[in-house]
């Protein structure tokens, strides 16, 4: 089923509550492709879950070089009698694949899959309202439905809604790197980049005044302006 952009924080709460309501670790698995935008999104989400979790190992991360890695990991866990996962989180991947088929969800009624994916298109099964085991979170910020915003930006906004202030300069840095990667790889439109550039400039100024030990964040030349010099 499809969660709207406004329901992104609700999706995070559901993931977080699964962790906080279980004493045993590794109820949640994060699937992360080996590319900059996904890795930055993972860094922000992992930071949030670690802060909110009641135990030191709130999740397990599986880093992917190809979709076959998902199958290999899941099949190995199916054979593990001690595995009792509740949630799989797909970070910047999975939107275009049938998650119900990939994870054989019909045979695992207690398992849910959350998808945070800036890429398009979406597999129709993932947004089927009758498919309650798959939650695809829409991250569009414009009327353009062909591209979403970077997942690092989406998770940074979730952190803000969560009221998490610890190590906020690290999360801001990861969000900026993810945004820059998406822009350089033409994964977002110019207007999306401009919206977030203005937002993060203000965040840098705000956070830079409150960091300890004399550390300060500063805004230097912005990338498109640097390009014009060459």
Verbal overview:
With 230 residues, the protein is an alpha/beta fold. It has one domain (2-227): inorganic pyrophosphatase (n-terminal core) (Alpha-Beta Complex). Helices cover 43% and strands 12% of the residues. The protein is built from 8 helices and 6 strands. The chain has a 6-stranded parallel beta sheet, with helices on both faces. Helix 4 (99-102) links the parallel strand 4 and strand 5. Helix 2 runs parallel beside helix 5 and helix 2 packs antiparallel against helix 6. The protein is globular. The model is unreliable at 225-230 (pLDDT under 50). Keywords: Cell cycle, DNA replication, Nucleus.
Quick structural overview:
The protein is 43% helix and 12% strand. The chain contains eight helices and six strands.
Shape: globular
Query: Count of helical segments?
Result: 8
The top level CATH class name: Alpha Beta
Strand order in the sheet with the most strands: 1-6-5-4-2-3
CATH architecture: Alpha-Beta Complex
Quantity of strands, as a count: 6
What's the overall average pLDDT, rounded? 84
Helix and strand composition category: alpha/beta
Task: Note the beta-strand portion.
Answer: 5-15%
Uncertain runs: 225-230
